[in-house]
Write a structure and sequence with these properties.
The complex is a heterodimer of chains A (about 300) and B (about 325). Chain A is α/β, with parallel strands linked by helices and about 300 residues long. Chain A is built from eight helices and twelve strands. The chains are: A alpha/beta (about 300), B mainly alpha (about 325).
């Protein structure tokens, strides 16, 4: 159980709905997240070049795809307000630029490629870090927060690892622990920078399934940077294709035609073929699966 | 299970500290006994108040401060080799003490005040320089510390060159070797208050300290003001170290060994581990001081014993841990 990812739909763990509030739904027609003309320079060279995009509604997962050096990680870090930039980011109508570190952490959760925890601490202590923006300077996590942390561990299927030293976990278990920490942070925007990078083939799929389920069940807005177009096509509601620091295409796998998507992928990867596998061939999935082949 | 083990370790270390504290009070060139103290023997009482109690108290609190400060440094820099020396506090204090011996007075008060100011000045310059550097990463603190350390060493060398080899140079060298021999009751209240205050604040901010061990970008996204909190905790730790070394002279190895030992014994970095690091520091310094004042006819520098006691124990712990890992 601890070596692999649980399937959320089969997870007997208690629901988080009782302890974690869902993010507010956007009441009007304005996008829940809007990146407006982002521009980042490095050594005089634009890494993000007047990049704009929007995410229309909460509860959706947006994938970022593109070749190495196209600006995926830079975009994530820019939204995290970690890089000097021009342009602005709006979340639920509020501008993120100029927010204090604490207020930013109350709105955005970030999962890096590999977490930077380098000293021994228990998995529970790692999860409790997620409550930091809610605590005062000398305040300690309350009993209720510990209970919530344990519930998040149950949700991600690693409750039996609560007292284990985080450094002794496998790559997959570490990512699950960080995802559990993200759940207790209870923010409306999740930013994930290649969360599957240290995982093997089946666990990549399970991790993204868990993120997709979390996004829907808790009405989060998720922006995830990926390398695999197949996983993006399977789990994301919207895919942004990045090229030369710009959004070259914005795809919606459930509604866009195969030709339209194939053409957009060819723009960044070269000649490709998009194969559609019927839902009858991929039980128990309830939708067709799309696979991108490089020619 | 692990918390039970940590409580047991904290209990054992506290008992060891108490035992070594009373041993340090009773043993010395003029041994005093409990019965002599209870019988209000004048000589025993005078020895107790003037020589033993201040010295034992300084070793107790000084060791605790050095242990806690080492824990802070090793956690922030994520490096078991990090110690307060890394940002130049020792060399700054040495230069300050040498300046006092040469130009102010070789008396205890002058040396203490100037050593404290020297140590603190070195820390302020190191942290100030690193704050000006773009990125404000831990590596810029280390680089600034190396530069300040080199500068302070140069000043110290220059001061030594101008010192009278018969008197002043010997005083400087003896101060650098470290000793609790010159500790009096009037010298310790300031140091003890500083150590207690800094340690209390470090304990209170322990949650933030743990978060500083995480990569900067990730810690920031968890809502911590990395630069400010790192500076604050480093300042508290170094302030405590300055308060110790200004009275005792340089004491090597305690700030390095105590937290490392505590971590190996506890297996985590919780507040209890931080406390254990302090008690191990106290035990080490009390024992080293008892040996330094009683083993030879003349009093020996305390660093000889902190290193002699600490190094084999550290090697044993590393080897024991390795065996455990491969089992």
């Amino acid at each position: 159980m601890t070596g692999t990812f649980p399937h959320p739909s089969h997870d007997p763990a208690p629901s988080l709905e009782s302890v974690f509030e869902s993010s507010p739904k956007s009441s009007d027609s304005s996008p829940v997240f809007f990146a407006d003309h982002l521009r980042v320079l490095r050594g005089g060279h634009p890494i993000l070049n007047d990049l704009s995009f929007s995410i229309e509604s909460a509860g959706t997962m947006t994938g970022l795809l593109g070749a190495n050096g196209c600006g995926k990680t830079t975009l994530i870090r820019t939204i995290c307000q970690d890089l000097p930039h021009s342009g602005s980011c709006k979340l639920n109508g509020s501008v993120l630029e100029g927010l204090s570190v604490r207020n930013l952490a109350r709105q955005i959760s970030y999962i890096p490629q590999q977490t930077g925890i380098s000293i021994s601490m228990s998995v529970l202590d790692v999860i409790l870090m997620g409550f930091h923006p809610m605590l005062k300077l000398f305040e300690q996590p309350s009993a209720m927060m510990r209970e919530q942390a344990y519930t998040a561990l149950c949700q991600t299927g690693i409750e039996n690892l609560a007292d284990r030293d985080y450094l002794t976990l496998s790559g997959g278990q570490k990512q699950l622990a960080i995802l559990a920490r993200t759940l207790v942070e209870n923010t409306s925007l999740l930013l994930l920078d290649e969360p599957d990078s240290s995982l093997d083939f089946p666990n990549r799929s399970s991790m993204l399934r868990l993120i997709a389920e979390t996004t829907k069940n808790h009405n989060k807005t998720t922006l995830v940077c990926l390398h695999s177009p197949d996983l993006a096509l399977q789990f994301c509601d919207q895919i942004l294709l990045l090229k030369d620091g710009k959004v070259s295409a914005c795809l919606h796998p459930k509604t866009d035609s195969d030709e339209q998507m194939e053409k957009a992928f060819a723009e960044i990867y070269g000649p490709v073929r998009l194969l559609r596998i019927s839902k009858n061939q991929v039980e128990p999935d309830t939708q067709d699966r799309l696979v991108l082949l490089l020619l | 299970m692990r918390s039970n083990r940590t409580s047991l370790l904290a209990g054992i270390s506290s008992l060891l500290v108490c035992a070594s504290f009373f041993t340090a009070i009773l043993i010395g060139k003029y041994p005093i006994s409990l019965t002599a103290l209870l019988a209000v023997d004048r000589m025993a009482i005078r020895t107790f108040w003037i020589l033993r109690l201040p010295r034992a108290l300084m070793a107790l609190f000084g060791g605790f401060g050095l242990g806690i400060a080492g824990f802070v440094y090793q956690t922030i820099f994520g490096n078991p080799l990090a110690s307060p020396d890394i940002i130049g506090v020792s060399s700054g204090a040495s230069a300050g003490a040498a300046f006092a011996i040469l130009f102010v007075s070789s008396g205890i008060v002058g040396t203490t005040v100037f050593a404290f100011v020297g140590g603190l000045l070195a820390v302020c310059v190191s942290l100030g320089l690193s704050a000006l550097a773009p990125g404000k990463s831990p590596s810029s603190i280390v680089l600034a510390g190396i530069a300040v350390h080199a500068l302070a060493q140069t000043i110290l060398m220059f001061l030594k060159l101008t010192a009278d080899p018969e008197k002043e140079l010997a005083s400087i060298e003896y101060w650098i070797m470290g000793s609790l021999g010159g500790v009096t009751l009037s010298k310790i209240p300031f140091s003890i208050v500083v150590i207690c205050l800094c340690s209390a604040l470090i304990f209170a901010l322990h949650r933030h300290l743990l978060m500083l061990s995480v990569h900067e970008e990730e810690a920031r996204m968890l809502g911590i003001s990395v630069g400010t909190m790192r500076m604050a905790l480093l300042f508290l730790a170094t302030f405590a170290v300055s308060a110790v070394v200004s009275v005792t002279g340089l004491i090597s190895f305690v700030g390095l060994l105590a937290p490392h030992t505590a971590r190996i014994l506890c297996g985590h970095n919780r507040r209890s581990c931080c406390f254990l690091s302090g008690t191990i520091g106290s035990f080490l310094l009390l024992t080293a001081d008892t040996l330094a004042k009683s083993i030879a006819k003349t009093e020996l520098p305390i660093s000889i014993f902190t290193s002699l006691l600490g190094a084999p124990f550290l090697i044993y712990l590393i080897l024991a841990k390795r065996e455990e890992d491969t089992r």
